[in-house]
Amino acid sequence: MRREIALLLGLALTLSPLTGCVRERRERTIRVGVTLYQQEDTFISALAQSLQQKALEEERIRGIKMNLSMMDGWGSQAVQTEQIDRFLDKGCDVICVNLVDRTAASTIIDKAHAAQVPIIFFNREPIREDLDRWDRAYYVGSHAAQAGELQGELVARAWRESSERMDRNGDGVLQYVMLEGEPGHQDALLRTEYSIKTLTEAGITVEKLANDAGDWQRGKASVLMTQWLQTYGDQIEVVFSNNDDMALGAIDACLEAGRSKEDLPFVVGVDATRPALEAVREGTLQGTVHNDADGQAESILSLICALAEGREPEKAVLLEGGTYVWLNHTVVTRENVDEIRSERRAAPILKALETGK
Ligand code: BGC
Ligand code: CA
């Protein structure tokens, strides 16, 4: 059932013969256990890849060795908890957890505390009382409400600028459907709430036609959207989606139902994954909100190194209340999509990882 994804990132330092340097001896190995809630999740796999890439860079630049053992929790808390037990048994210096079930945090923090191994949660946020159980439990993520607000602002601006195109039935009311992530996930709850709140606070009258959980998945969202198209057809003016994969699923459903690319409802997502950026460029996805996977990976890595080397984490990352590292979101539309793309293309180590060299 379990699959160990990877990777011993112990690349030998290669040294230029021109400088005549000798091979540097590795003084220190940092052992890190990382467990993902579901490796095939598009956003999570981008974040994980970025983390691997940055660990390689860290090894190269600082001449340390990083053993990053990354596991897939396969959507099962029981499987993930067992992986954490193994990380602790094996003597990891730090563990990083993308929880399957947010409510399982307290048990896991207690285990890490007993073993005196610092723990970094990311993307799936434990409640504050759980994080407060131990002062070496951290969370790296982005403010869920902010993503919702920015998504709402994006739609509000488009509605003001081109309501004649968006308001298909001309009644002055914005009719929408909402594709929600997994129930109970902070990003599903808060993105849903704040996107709509932002519109109504901007004075726009909205009408919800339908909402349901697509669990972050493109296929599930496409099934939901197919049903909604049958029931509401042309009445759907805007599709809000809690993430990009589901937004792409809604677009798939529209195209399969025979809509042309020019006749799609106004679809918006969150994440700015690679396929979503392509869709923004193509004009099928009207916009998204950049959920900074690279920034989160970078903060996680800085925290790992500080904690493993006994340095103060406050000096390595911007730490709110001794516990939280927050990354900012930005709006992405056709106007600025190339800026985000070139940022991603700049990553130099990716090739080495893909080819295994
Ligand atoms: C992302 C989703 C992802 C989820 C997984 C969210 O922050 O926007 O794309 O599926 O995290 O936990
Ligand atoms: Ca309308």
Description of the structure:
This protein is an alpha/beta fold and 357 residues long. It has 13 helices and twelve strands. It has helices spanning 42-62, 77-89, 105-115, 128-131, 144-166, 186-201, 218-232, 244-256, 274-282, 293-308, 313-316, 337-345, 350-355; strands at residues 29-36, 65-72, 94-97, 119-122, 137-142, 174-180, 206-213, 238-241, 266-268, 288-290, 324-327, 330-332. Strands 2-1-3-4-5-11 form a six-stranded parallel sheet, sandwiched between helices. Strands 7-6-8-9 form a four-stranded parallel sheet, sandwiched between helices. A two-stranded antiparallel ribbon has the order 10-12. Helix 6 links the parallel strand 6 and strand 7. Helix 2 packs parallel to helix 3, helix 7 packs across helix 8 (244-256) and helix 9 runs antiparallel to helix 12 (337-345). The protein is elongated. The model is unreliable at 1-26 and 344-357 (pLDDT under 50). Calcium ion (CA) binds at residues 167, 169, 171, 173-175, 237.
